[in-house]
Amino acid sequence: VKLGSCNTPKPSFFDFEGKQKWEAWKALGDTSPHQAMQEYVAAVKKLDPSWNPQTTEKRGKESKTVFGGPVVSSLYQEETIREEDKNIFDYCRENNIDYVTKAIQSKKVDVNVTDEEGRALLHWACDRGHKELVSVLLQNAADVNIQDGEGQTALHYAATCEFLDIVELLLQSGADPGLRDQEGCLPAEVTDSKAITRALQQHGAGEP
Q1: What HEC string does 147-159 produce?
Q2: Opening angle at CA 45, ends 23 and 68, nearest 5
Q3: Which windows of the sequence hold ANK repeats (predicted)?
Q4: pLDDT digit string (tens) for 135-174?
């Protein structure tokens, strides 16, 4: 945990322990990195005394945290990446709209390119809450229903992180709220936001 702000997709709907840990982290808000780390560790240890904050499951250059689920586990590593070592996903994570736009429009990068976990630029932009970048990607023919390696769409990411404005933008752009991930979950089933649930149901998601 490097920052207090939680921009990571919530764990699977059925991963109750992971969901509790995610909620504990999200509740910290925008605290300082050091304070966030201390408070988070303390909160999670209350939930699970056996939890080891050093435990990670390495997956290539990315890693999965103990939360489980499609977690963006290289959180904020872009802060230490040298400019010459950055890739398109790093620029997307840091909301560098100009760079991403030029790269896509010049055909240097496919707008639907995916990382090692199957996450497209649209997944990353939704995960970080970058609404303007989401709009730019959609305007440049990003697949609004593209699914990551675990079957989650951009709607799943925006819903789990409770970005209502992005959920609405995706729906207006043709996102299908009826697409399920590999665990059978709809976007409406992975959010605690009543407003997001209503928005998804109004677009035909049905009852979770």
Answers
A1: CCCCCCCHHHHHH
A2: 50
A3: 117-149, 150-182
A4: 999 999 999 999 999 999 999 999 999 999 999 999 999 9
pTM value is 0.65
Q: How far apart are CA 136 and CA 120, in angstroms?
A: 14
Judge whether 117 and 182 are in contact, CB under 8 Å.
Answer: no
The three-class DSSP label of residue 166 is: helix
Tracing tokens 């995960």 back to the chain, one arrives at: 127
Instruction: Report the distance separating Cα 17 and Cα 142, nearest Å.
Output: 34
Q: Which residues pair with 57 in a beta bridge?
A: 64
In 3D, which of 16, 48, 42 has the Cα closest to residue 27? 42
Domains of the chain: 1-75 (no CATH), 83-208 (1.25.40.20)
Whether 45 contacts 52, CB under 8 Å: no
| Spatial separation of the C-alpha atoms in residues 157 and 146, rounded to whole Å | 12
> Would you give the distance in Å from CA 96 to the centre of its chain?
17
**pLDDT tens-digit profile of 84-105?**
889 999 999 999 999 999 999 9
Query: 47-59: b or e for each residue (b if 16 or more CB lie within 10 Å)?
Result: eeeeeeeeeeeee
Cα–Cα distance for residue pair 18/9, rounded to 1 Å: 11
